[in-house]
Amino acid sequence: MHPDLQKLLDADKVKPALAERLDQIAPGKYLLHSSWGAGKVASWDLPTKKLTIDFEKRSGQQMDLQFALQKTLPLEPDDFRARKVEEIDHLRELAKENAVELVILLLQSHGGSLTVDGLEKEVSGSVVDEKVFKKWWDSTKRALRESKKVIVPARRTEALELRSGDLTPAQALLADFEEARDLKGMAKALEAVVSDSSLYKDDPESLKPLLAQLEDAAKKGTRMQLGLALQLLSLRDELIHGVKSLELEDDAPRLANMLLAEEDRLGEAIGGLATPRQRAIYEVFPEAFGDRWVEVITKIFDEVGSRAVTEIARLVIERGELPKLEEHIRSSLARRSLSSDALIWVARERKGSAEKVFGGDVGAAILNLLETDHLADGPRTTTRLQSLLSDDKDLLADIVAPLSTTEAKNFGRRLLECPVFAELDRKSLLARIIKARPETADLVSGDGKKKVENLVVSWESLERKQAELDDLIRVRIPQNTKDISIARSYGDLRENFEYKSAKDMQKVLMRRKAELEQELDLARGTDFKGADTKTANIGTVITLKNAAGDEQVATLLGAWDSDPEKQIVSYLSEAGASLMGAAPGEEVDLRDHDTDAMVTWTVVSIAPYIS
Question: Is the pTM of this model over 0.90?
Answer without folding.
Answer: no
